[in-house]
Amino acid sequence: MEIIRTHHPEGFKLLDTAALRRDFLIAGLFAPGKIDLRYWEVDRTIIGGAVPQATTLELTATKELLAADYFCERREVGIVNLGGPGAVETDGASHLLNKLDALYIGKGTKSVKFSSKNPAKPAQFYIVSYPAHTAYPTKRVRKAQAQVLELGAVETANRRKLCKLLVPGLVQSCQLVLGVTLLEKGSVWNTMPCHTHERRSEVYLYFDVPPKAFVTHYLGGNAPRPRARPRGRLVAELVHPLRLGHLRLRLCLVHGR
What we know:
By secondary structure, this protein is mainly beta. 6% of the residues lie in helices and 38% in strands.
């Protein structure tokens, strides 16, 4: 599991574009037939992707990093499926997830396994995990059960739906929340005005970006520096709790914190 280090705000100002991409952009999380995890020092966040094909994939602990016998020994996990139909099995119980369905897995769950209904069109499970102090029940939330907020306006080209999936009122968790933002046709902005995250870190995953489209993400306090996202790929973005402004062009995204 790759470890991603954090930054002091003053040191962050000295990073050039290549260093910003190296330290805040994550690509390659969704390799066929694999689970790929990254450990971010901020809030001890773990994010990853699982793409099961013909065989089942199991989420296991890294003894050196987690000092645990199983992944959820002291952690909770949020999962959202971005691909074809698949299932997540927790301690023998199977939870079928269609696209944009989510699953909360509570602390103490010993076994977590991923499978796809059709290996030719595999599920793509996005994984977000944080430390947990108590155990809450594992629970599935369908896309149709999400708390949906209609945001923005056609006039400002940011009409969008915020689908809250793993949030208070639907799921009990220690600290993890997860949702999906879907832009309406013709809208190109997600969040304006730009803002900062002082209270908590946040991770965004961009998905279903059309091959000829791109995403521009602005980092920095009063002197933001843009970074273009790769086209037609699934990429995750680490949002430092100290400073970030962001805007996006034609995309869907998952945000977990």
